[in-house]
Amino acid sequence: MDLTRKKITANDGALLVVWDSRNAGTPVVFVHGFPETHICWNPLIDAFDSHEIRPYRLIVYDLRGFGESSRTGEASLNRFYYDHDTIISKLELKRYHLVGHDWGGAIALHVARFKPETLLSLAVMNTNYWKTDVLGMWHMIFFNIPFLPTVVFRTIPDRLFKFGMLGAFVDRNRLTLAARDSYLQMFQDRETTRYWTKLYRNMGRSLIIQKSRGLKRLALSDETALPVRSNCAYQTDISLIWGEKDRFNPIWICRDMEKQLKKRGASVSVNFIAHSGHFVQEEQPEQVAACLIQNWKKTSSENKSA
Predict the structure, then answer these.
(1) How many structural domains are present in the chain?
(2) Helix runs in 147-237, H state only
(3) What are phi and psi of 229, to 5 degrees?
(4) What local confidence, expressed as pLDDT, does residue 204 receive?
(5) Which residue has better confidence, 214 or 150?
(6) Is the pLDDT of residue 215 over 80?
(7) In sequence order, which ranges of 91-189 are alpha helices (DSSP H)?
(8) Peptide bond into 35 cis (omega under 30)
(9) pLDDT mean across residues, the chain
(10) pLDDT confidence bin for 103, thresholds 50/70/90
(11) Cα separation of 157 and 160, whole Å?
């Protein structure tokens, strides 16, 4: 499918690069995670061709700090949320399906928290939000050790890529050569890895503050404040799609997320994907495509009958 590339300017001047099919149809926005770019969705988009589905307008973009988007400015989930909101506004999307993986999944849950009325449905893949598996998130510890990330990225980025990225696949041959080359280039780019380091150090500080009541008043003063929580927060159809062999966010993270969402009134379904690690949309795109299409058809039927 041909996607038109465009640049959107965030409110701090950073450039966000977006690809849009621009065809008539229900919008679907895909948001990637770490350490990927928009091309992680290519296998999934290709898998849609094998299904008879009505036209959808497909939109992907590179997060700030990744791929072709700016690698400057604030490095936080809050900033990612506002970048996403800027893109949605500039594309004039009133309601849309949202699919997020890893950081993209956390961004998607922020949308469900603050602007659920914009969502037709939400799919979250292999992410964490309320709870984190500290041992699984070894890379967060890595980024928070003084000087270590700089030394490793400057001396052995290819080894870190093989261990951290390729090692997260059940079958690493499922990662396309184009994607492999694109991701490895980011590991070798100093501006990108500096942004990543800042991102995970801010994440580490945020987690410490959240866990300590006495430190909550010391919240990151340089971090963009979030909006007021919607009165309808999480009131949307949410699908959790999870690679069973994820070593970063194991199944118990998914089950806890399901519990937390249902407690908040969300309609939740869970789909575990066999023979897949963390990068489920690249490792098992056919299975993920089938889950998404089923959910979209269900949402469409519910909207017609409402």
Answers:
(1) 1
(2) 148-155, 157-164, 177-188, 190-211
(3) -60, 135
(4) 87
(5) 150
(6) no
(7) 103-114, 138-143, 148-155, 157-164, 177-188
(8) yes
(9) 92
(10) very high
(11) 5
Residues 6+ apart with CB under 8 A from 266: 112, 234, 235, 236, 237, 238
Find the CATH number of the domain harbouring 17.
Answer: 3.40.50.1820
The whole-angstrom separation of Cα 80 and Cα 84 is 6
Which residues are paired to 124 by β-bridges? 100, 240
Compute the C-alpha angle 273/279/283, nearest 5°: 65
Point out which residues pair with 260 in neighbouring strands.
none
Q: Position of tokens 């469900």?
A: 112
Burial class from Cβ neighbours inside 10 Å (0-12, 13-18, 19+) for residue 187 reads buried
Query: 31-35, 156-160, 260-264, 300-304: which has the minimum mean pLDDT?
Result: 300-304
Written as six digits, the tokens of 269 are 């379904």
Q: Which residues are registered as beta bridge partners of 18?
A: 6, 61
Asked if 109 and 84 count as a contact pair (C-beta separation under 8 A), the reply is no
- CB 232: neighbour CB atoms within 10 A? 13
Q: How far apart are CA 8 and CA 19, in angstroms?
A: 11
Structure tokens at 84: 């996403």
Domain range for residue 145? Answer: 4-305
In the sheet where 15-20 sits, what is the strand order? Answer: 4-9, 15-20, 56-61, 26-31, 96-101, 119-125, 237-243, 267-273
Residue 95, both tokens: 């309601």
